[in-house]
Amino acid sequence: MKEETAIHVENLTKMFGDFTAVNAISFDVKKGEIFGFLGANGAGKTTAMKMLIGILTPTSGNADVAGFNVNTQPESIKKSIGYMSQKFALYDDLTVKENITFFGGIYGLTRKQINEKRYQLVEELELQEIVNELVSSLPLGWKQKIAFSVALLHNPKIVFLDEPTGGVDPITRRQFWELIYKAANKGTTIFVTTHYMDEAEYCDSVSIMVNGKIEALDTPKKLKEQFNAESMNDVFLKLARG
């Protein structure tokens, strides 16, 4: 794996019985870049991500994430990354403060580090009014922003975001992407899955999956030129039609 590469993937494949969910995908993600992993629901994005974060074992192929191998060092990968799941990111029955403390402990931070991080997070997101509120009482947009910040608590080299803006309004989506840019500017590599094609425009590099395969991979600008398209949505529609 090259020094400037955060993720290296080579012919990564996942089969469930006779069904091939991810079909021999290969790509590299540079350190500090925002990498968009796009595709329609069911294209294989989440399955691929689960292999990269050490939750699923590949059927074949190989990948290195943050310098660790997905086949032989999945536990080391989990300690080196941040992860924000589409369905579960925070405990609804805990307060914002309790969530930050709990996840800080899971990530191995000391009590002093947790207190410092909590103060920093509360100040940055202006959570003073809601820090002692149950997460279940918060709007989805707030939950997403707090969940992303919690995924960054232990200063991971790479953060994986699975459909982070699903179901939130356009203003909240824009605010969320501002948080992503801020993290990337500090050197964190961002790996984000989404089915919102307009969000591809915010990424440094983009791959588009169709039926388990990567059918396009480049910068948004070059992909639009390649497919003679005005937007990434047009690129995706052309790919989907075959």
UniProtKB/TrEMBL annotation:
Coiled coil: none annotated. InterPro entries: AAA+_ATPase, ABC_transporter-like_ATP-bd, P-loop_NTPase. Pfam families: ABC_tran. One of its GO terms (cellular component) is membrane. Residues 7-236 form the ABC transporter domain. It comes from the Bacteria. It is a multi-pass membrane protein. Gene3D superfamilies: P-loop containing nucleotide triphosphate hydrolases (3.40.50.300). It is found in: Membrane. One of its GO terms (molecular function) is ATP binding. The keyword Iron-sulfur does not apply. Keywords: ATP-binding, Membrane, Nucleotide-binding, Transmembrane, Transmembrane helix, Transport. This is ABC-2 type transport system ATP-binding protein. It comes from Lutibacter oceani.
